[in-house]
Design goal:
Distance between the termini: 18 Å
Strand content: 35-45%
Structural class: mainly beta
Number of helices: 6
Shape: globular
Radius of gyration: 30 Å
Largest sheet: 13 strands, mixed
Helix content: 10-25%
Number of strands: 56
C-alpha cells in the first residue's frame, strides 16, 4: 500500500510540474501616470505585456523587442509626443511609436534541408507576396535543389524540371524569376539573398500566375547549399509550420503628435506619424504587428508599416485637427516595400493625401472603414491628391470590401501638370483586386482603374454608387482610353436606368485639367461610367432573381432562387467529384454556383426547383476539401422542391471565408444506407477545450489528496512504532 501511494504521489507531482512547464506566463509590467512607458519597455523581457494606466504620458516611444503595449482605453490613456518631424530635434523618421531594432523581426523557417547531413536542418527565410502561402495547397513540396541556369533566373531556365530552383537575387523582379522557373517545370523556388538580411518579396507582373512556393534565404545559407551542390545531392522540404513567436501589439491609447510652434507648409508641416516601422531601406522583414482600438491626433498616418507579414490595423480613429490654419492628420494606413497578409478594418478617418495607401503588397483585406471628406472642403484640400484608398505598383490579391467612402473631390495639385483624380478607390497596376459591397457617395470618381500590366483586372461587384460624377473610370496613361475591360456587374448605380457610358475619347480633353473643367459643365451626365466597363444594372429590390440550368443527366431544367444576394455563375457539373459515397446516387447530377452581394457572414436560404420529384429523405450532398458531407432538405415532403441553408464563411460555403460570397458545389442525392452518425468531437483529443486550464486544478487536488493519504499512512506507521 505504501509503495502504491508513493507511486501515485510521484505521478501526481510529475503531472503537476508538466502542467506548469507547458504553461509559460509572459512577464507583466504596470505603468501609472508619472512613470515612463519607455523605461518599462527598456527593462521588459521579449514577449512582455506592459499595461499603462489612465493619464497623459509625455514621450516618444521606441519598441525594440516583441511585446504587447496595452493602454486603459483611448478615452483615458494618452501618449503626447515631445518630438516631431523635421523640427525640435527630430529627423524625418520621428514617429510617436517607432518599431525598430529586434522588434517583431521575421522569425520564419520556411524550408528544411533534409540532405546532406553537413547542411541539414531548418533555415531562416522570408515569404513572397505571391504564390501559395504556408498551409495552402501546393506549398509543402519536397525535392532536389539545383542551382538555376542562368543563376539570376532572368531567362528561360532549362535545368529545373521537377526540382527546386535556387536562384540568385538581382537583375529582374522576383515574380519573373518564379515565372521562368515555373515555366521550366520547377516545383519550388529558393531565392538566395545578396546579404544575410531578409525581406518579404513584393508582387510583380507575374504574381497571380505563380502556383509554386517561393521563399528567400540568407546569403550564408545559400552559399552553403551551393558549396555542397558540386559534390552532393541537396534535398529540401517546404515546411507547413513556419511561423515563430514574436510580434508587437499596441491597443487602447490616444496618440497625439507634436505640433511646431510655427506652422510649416506642405508635407513637412505634418507633426509626425503615429506608429511606424522606422528602419531605413532595406527594411528588415517583420511579422505580427497588431494596432487596434487607438485614436490618433495630429498624425499624418496612424500606422506606417514597411515590409510586414501578418498585421492588423483595426478599429482605430484618425482625427484631423486644426493648428495655426493648418488641418493636420486623419490618415489611417500607409505601407510600402512589400509585405502582406494583413487586415485594415473598421477604422475611421480622412486625409486628402490618401487615407489608406497600399504599395507592392499582397493578400490585404481593406474592409469596413469609414472615410468621409467634409462637405465643404477645407482650404488647401483640393490641392492634394484626395484618394480615399490607393493601391498601386504591383499590389496583388487585394480585397476592398464593405467600406463607406464619400465626398472625395478632385483638384489640380500645384506644380503637377497631370493633376489628381479625386477617387474613392484608386487601383493602378493591381492584380486580382476585388471591390465589393462598398458605398461610394458624392465622389468625383467612385473607382478609378488603370490596369497597366496587371494580368487579372479588378472585379467591381455589389457596390452602391450614389451621386458620383463618374462611378467607374477606366483609363490608361494620363487620361487615355482603356484597352482592357473591367468587370463591374451587379452594382447599384443610383438609378433604375443604370449608368451612362461616357467614352474617354469623347471628353474633348486629354489632361486631368480638362477633366476638371467638366465638373463645372451643367450638362455632364449623372452616374457615368467610362468605356471598357462591363456592367449591368440592378435595384436592391430586383437583385434576388432565379437562375436555371439543364441537368447533365438529361432530366430537365433545375432552377435556383436565393433568399438574399445575387445568384450567378450557375452551371451543371459534367463530372462528379472523386469517390462519391458508396450507394449514393445523383439522379439530377451536381451543380455549382455562387451567391454575391451579401453581408459577410450572412445566412441564405436557397430554394431549388428540380425537374422531377425527389423522394422523402433525399439530402443535398457537398464535396469540400476532399470530404463528402450533406445538408438536410428543409422542405422534405416528396415534391420537386428542395430548400437548403448556406452560411457565408460557414456551413455550405466551399471557401470557408466570410467575404460576402457563398460558393456551393453540390447536388441532390439519396442518403447513405444506414448511415453511421457523423463523428462528434466529445472526447479529450477531439475537443477544443484548454486542457491545461481544465486539468491543472484537478491534478493539483489529486496531488494534495495523495500527499494527505501518504502523510496519514506515515503517521499510522509511526504510531505503531
Amino acid at each position: 500500500m505504501r509503495k502504491l501511494f508513493g507511486i501515485l504521489l510521484v505521478v501526481a507531482l510529475v503531472l503537476s510540474f508538466s502542467i506548469v512547464a507547458t504553461t509559460p506566463v509572459a512577464a507583466a509590467y504596470d505603468v501609472v501616470e508619472g512613470q515612463s512607458i519607455q523605461a518599462a519597455i527598456d527593462v521588459a523581457a521579449p514577449g512582455a505585456i506592459i499595461t499603462v494606466g489612465p493619464g497623459t504620458y509625455d514621450e516618444n516611444l521606441s519598441i525594440d523587442k516583441s511585446l504587447s503595449l496595452i493602454g486603459a482605453g483611448r478615452d483615458v490613456t494618452t501618449v503626447q509626443a515631445i518630438q516631431g518631424r523635421n523640427y525640435n530635434g527630430g529627423g524625418f523618421q520621428s514617429p510617436i511609436v517607432g518599431i525598430e531594432g529586434d522588434a517583431a523581426l521575421l522569425n520564419l523557417q520556411p524550408i528544411e534541408i533534409d540532405a546532406p547531413a553537413a547542411i541539414s536542418g531548418a533555415k531562416d527565410g522570408s515569404l513572397a507576396a505571391f504564390g501559395p502561402a504556408p498551409g495552402d495547397a501546393g506549398w509543402a513540396v519536397s525535392g532536389e535543389v539545383v542551382y538555376a541556369d542562368p543563376p539570376l533566373g532572368d531567362d528561360d531556365i532549362g535545368n529545373v524540371d521537377g526540382k527546386i530552383a535556387l536562384i540568385d537575387r538581382g537583375a529582374v523582379a522576383f515574380s519573373i524569376k518564379a515565372h521562368n522557373s515555373q515555366e521550366g517545370g520547377a516545383i519550388g523556388v529558393i531565392i538566395a539573398n545578396t546579404s544575410d538580411d531578409l525581406i518579404t518579396m513584393g508582387a510583380g507582373d507575374y504574381a497571380d500566375q505563380i502556383t509554386i512556393p517561393v521563399i528567400m534565404i540568407r546569403k550564408s545559407d545559400a552559399d552553403a547549399i551551393k558549396a555542397e551542390l558540386d559534390e552532393e545531392t541537396v534535398i529540401a522540404t517546404f515546411q507547413d509550420d513556419v511561423y515563430g513567436p514574436g510580434g508587437v501589439t499596441i491597443s487602447g491609447f490616444t496618440f497625439k503628435g507634436n505640433i511646431p510652434a510655427t506652422p510649416q507648409s506642405g508635407i513637412n508641416g505634418l507633426s509626425t506619424q503615429g506608429i511606424e516601422t522606422s528602419d531605413p531601406w532595406p527594411w528588415p522583414a517583420r511579422q505580427n504587428i497588431v494596432i487596434t482600438d487607438n485614436a490618433f491626433v495630429f498624425c499624418g498616418k496612424a500606422a506606417v508599416l514597411y515590409n510586414v507579414t501578418g498585421f492588423e490595423v483595426r478599429n482605430n480613429i484618425a482625427i484631423r485637427e486644426s493648428h495655426g490654419g493648418q488641418i493636420i492628420g486623419g490618415g489611417i494606413f500607409h505601407n510600402s516595400g512589400g509585405g502582406g497578409f494583413g487586415f485594415i478594418a473598421d477604422n475611421i478617418g480622412f486625409d486628402p493625401d490618401s487615407t489608406i495607401s497600399v504599395t507592392s503588397s499582397s493578400h490585404i483585406e481593406i474592409s469596413g472603414n469609414v472615410i468621409e471628406a467634409p462637405e465643404t472642403p477645407v482650404e488647401g484640400d483640393l490641392d492634394i491628391v484626395q484618394h480615399a484608398i490607393t493601391v498601386h505598383t504591383g499590389g496583388s490579391s487585394i480585397d476592398i470590401v464593405g467600406n463607406t467612402i464619400s465626398g472625395l473631390k478632385a483638384g489640380p495639385k500645384s506644380g503637377y501638370t497631370h493633376g489628381w483624380q479625386g477617387a474613392g478607390v484608386s487601383l493602378n497596376n493591381v492584380n486580382n483586386a476585388r471591390v465589393e459591397g462598398n458605398t461610394f457617395e458624392n465622389n468625383t470618381i467612385g473607382v478609378r482603374v488603370q490596369v497597366g500590366t496587371a494580368t487579372q483586372p479588378p472585379v467591381i461587384r455589389c457596390n452602391s454608387f450614389l451621386g458620383n460624377f463618374f462611378s467607374v473610370f477606366n483609363h490608361t496613361g494620363g487620361i487615355g482610353p482603356a484597352s482592357v475591360e473591367v468587370d463591374a456587374h451587379n452594382n447599384y448605380w443610383g438609378t433604375a436606368d443604370g449608368p451612362t457610358v461616357v467614352s474617354v475619347a469623347d471628353f474633348g480633353a486629354n489632361t486631368w485639367a480638362g477633366f476638371y473643367a467638366l465638373l463645372d459643365d451643367a450638362d455632364h451626365p449623372d452616374h457615368a461610367v467610362s468605356d471598357k466597363v462591363d456592367f449591368d444594372r440592378w435595384l436592391p429590390t430586383e437583385l434576388v432573381e432565379p437562375l436555371s440550368v439543364e441537368t447533365t443527366t438529361g432530366t430537365g431544367l433545375a432552377s435556383f432562387m436565393p433568399s438574399q444576394g445575387a445568384l450567378e455563375e450557375l452551371q451543371a457539373l459534367a463530372d462528379l467529384p472523386p469517390e462519391p459515397p458508396e450507394d449514393v446516387t445523383f439522379p439530377h447530377g451536381m451543380f455549382e454556383f455562387q451567391i454575391c452581394c451579401l453581408t459577410p457572414g450572412q445566412t441564405v436560404t436557397v430554394t431549388i426547383e428540380l425537374p422531377e420529384d425527389v423522394p422523402m429523405g433525399y439530402v443535398w450532398w457537398k464535396y469540400q476539401d476532399g470530404e463528402w458531407y450533406w445538408l438536410p432538405n428543409e422542405t422534405d415532403d416528396g415534391d420537386n422542391i428542395m430548400t437548403i441553408t448556406l452560411v457565408d464563411g460557414g456551413l455550405g460555403d466551399a471557401d470557408g471565408v466570410a467575404d460576402g460570397f457563398i460558393r456551393d458545389p453540390g447536388g441532390p442525392g439519396n442518403p447513405e444506407p444506414d448511415p453511421d452518425p457523423a463523428p462528434i468531437a466529445v472526447g479529450w483529443e477531439g475537443s477544443g477545450v484548454d486542457k491545461v486550464a481544465v486539468m491543472a486544478p484537478w491534478i493539483a487536488l489529486f496531488a494534495a489528496m495523495i500527499a494527505g493519504a501518504t502523510l496519514f499512512v506515515v503517521r499510522r506507521r509511526g504510531a505503531r512504532i
